[in-house]
């Protein structure tokens, strides 16, 4: 049994234990719990379309915080990016989507959603904007209306990556051949 102590003799560890005991008895509503402690929402498998993998992602992200990256086309300054993405955020707010926006570069912003289930609807809105170059959502890059033809091809296939790797290997092999010592030994 724990030894009775005078409250004036409690240290930080004793106070932490006391707080934990009090919190055990508290009835905290599910909505007030932090996201990582909330039980996951039940998934209705009847709504899943096996032909569309996005439908599975929509249901698994429902009720969870999700972030998407948005790139503004052209060569905007950070202030222009702020203004353009602010208009998009305002439009989404007017459509009752809870979106927060953070500028992370001169042409890039993060849109944070409280409910990830709406992410694909918001993505569809963003890629139809004139100044949207692309939207990155769950590792997938979706080209926007503002992307030029080269960016659209690059985002879908990314053939340059393999080509660059091969070129780098050729260069390193040629450097190795050039730096080899001769077979003859020179006696001093």
Automatic annotation (TrEMBL):
What InterPro entries does UniProt report for this protein, alphabetically?
Answer: MESD
Q: Where in the cell is it found?
A: Endoplasmic reticulum
Q: Output a single Gene Ontology CC term carried by this record.
A: endoplasmic reticulum
What name appears for this protein in its UniProt entry?
A: LRP chaperone MESD
Stretches with biased composition (Acidic residues): 23-32
PANTHER family noted in UniProt: LRP CHAPERONE MESD, MESODERM DEVELOPMENT CANDIDATE 2
> Could you tell me where the Basic and acidic residues compositional bias lies?
148-188
Q: Gene3D superfamilies, alphabetically?
A: 3.30.70.260, 6.10.250.640
Where does it mainly reside?
Answer: endoplasmic reticulum
Gene designation per UniProt: Mesd
